[in-house]
Design a protein that fits this description.
The protein has about 290 residues and is of the alpha+beta class. It contains 14 helices and four strands. The chain binds flavin mononucleotide.
Length: about 290
């Protein structure tokens, strides 16, 4: 798969084939991809625990399920592998000096940019170390986002489905359930497995509502030729609901023994999304506005 196609093909998968195991080498490739994400001062603060259901203690897994938001239970139970993404705060407060300075002999940074060992040790490092924990954690969450995005794309490239899963039900208990030490901040779970569903791409806000030209509020116009090119490259794909999507969901729900009801939404709220001031104006598949649910 080419990069644009991989980006366009990634979906948040909410039904997995529980019977199809994930190859260990694919998990290795996913983790390697995360390891090579860019990170501040080269600090590599994003870590992960790989939870393979075949070997993970069942009672511990049940505790994880209890920490996850209820709407994530199906993915957690169906995906054969769960990756718990973590931030290691020691990577900032204890190891940053080492991981940053390795960029000198690696010849990644130069004196021309103002980088000298003296500057790093006497100015940059003390300043970074003075950051309070919540600020450092915020910074490291950005980094984790990069690593996780690499992991999601690598999984897609390998034909796997993924879904990030929040653990908002019992956030304070979650680290204990995972058994992580004080310096580790668990941030997100990721379900990994073979997708049982084939959804289309999910709607996104209009390009010109997101991107600004020169100053905030001056829309950057979407180039239609570029858009067409990206449709050919697979970055922009046919949007959900694809033909037969509802039947697919109903069959999956029936097969797994869940309710076949579709979520409701008032018709006037659907119509609003088709109005000119909506961020989705011109971006939603035609036909939905007449349908209602
Ligand atoms: C940081 C983050 C957390 C997310 N948490 C959840 C979650 O807890 N449960 C879930 O079903 N989807 C979760 N998602 C997936 C989004 O809901 C998803 O991006 C959205 O449905 C659009 O679909 P797509 O990812 O297929 O484009 C998360 C995504 C991100 C980036």
């Amino acid at each position: 798969m080419e990069l644009f196609d991989t980006i366009g093909t990634r979906r948040s998968v909410r039904f997995f084939k529980p019977w199809q195991e994930v190859e260990e080498w694919k998990i290795q490739m996913i983790l390697q991809s995360a390891r090579y994400a860019s990170c501040q001062g080269n600090c590599n603060s994003t870590e992960a625990i790989v939870i393979d259901k075949r070997t993970y203690p069942e009672d511990k897994f049940e505790q994880i399920v209890e920490c996850a938001s209820p709407f994530n239970e199906i993915q957690l139970r169906q995906a054969p592998v769960i990756i718990a993404w973590l931030i290691n705060m020691d990577a900032w407060y204890k190891e940053l000096i080492q991981t940053f300075q390795v960029l000198f002999p690696a010849r990644a940074i130069t004196a021309a940019h103002g980088w000298t060992f003296k500057h790093l040790t006497e100015q940059t490092y003390p300043r970074l170390m003075s950051f309070p924990k919540d600020k450092a954690e915020d910074l490291l969450r950005i980094e984790a986002g990069q690593a996780i995005a690499h992991a999601l794309l690598a999984a897609t490239e390998l034909g796997l489905g993924t879904c990030l899963l929040a653990t908002g039900r019992k956030p304070t208990e979650f680290p204990q359930v995972l058994g992580t030490p004080e310096n580790i901040v668990p941030i997100w779970l990721m379900a990994v497995g073979y997708s049982a569903e084939q959804p289309g791409q999910r709607p996104r806000k209009r390009f010109d509502r997101l991107f600004h030209s020169g100053e905030y509020g001056k829309p950057l116009k979407e180039d239609k030729d570029v858009r067409k090119e990206l449709e050919m490259e697979g970055l922009i794909q046919p949007m959900d609901p694809l033909p037969g999507r509802e039947e697919e969901l109903k069959h999956l729900c029936r097969m797994f023994g869940f309710t076949e009801d579709m979520p409701d939404m008032p018709k006037d709220k659907i119509l609003e999304m088709y109005e000119e001031d909506s961020p989705y104006y011109g971006e939603l598949p035609p036909g939905l506005e007449k349908r209602g649910v």
